[in-house]
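[agent] plan:
  1. take the single chain provided in the ticket
  2. run structure prediction with default settings
  3. attach structure tokens to the ticket
  4. add a short note for the reviewer (M.T.)
[agent] executing step 1
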Amino acid sequence: MESKKYKITVFSDSHGNVNAFKKAMPIINSSDYFVYLGDGNRDLDKVLPEITAEVIRVKGNCDVMSEHPQDAVLTVGETKFMITHGNAYGVKSSTIGLAAHARETGCAWALYGHTHRAQVFDAGGVMLLNPGSAGYGKPTCAVIEGDGKFFTAEIISL
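[agent] step 2 finished; step 3 output follows
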């Protein structure tokens, strides 16, 4: 019996660049989940009808009128993903608080934005992923794939 394969596309910090979503739509719609980490929720609203993946989103520090939560947890198979913009955890100076909170809430991954720097790394047993910015510089996003227990991630240039 073949196990289920999951795909999660992660975006953050579009800051007005709706074209980044449009360019990535084939990637987004080939995913089971589309995670948006904030700072451009109005941009996402403009393309939401075109997205077929399940959407999970949080607000960023620039989403001042947003009613979306600051944090969320997505469970995919046996794995929990913490979803946050990151500003509340001070990620521009350190990811220690973010990793600690993810660990405390039983999350194996913490997905965050805010810094506009794309990176994936292990922080004491918690995988931290920042997809970079979909709106500034060379736009990027991230794709996470796995079987529900083990996941890998890569940064994609848009």
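[agent] step 4 note for reviewer: The chain has a mean pLDDT of 96.
[agent] ticket updated
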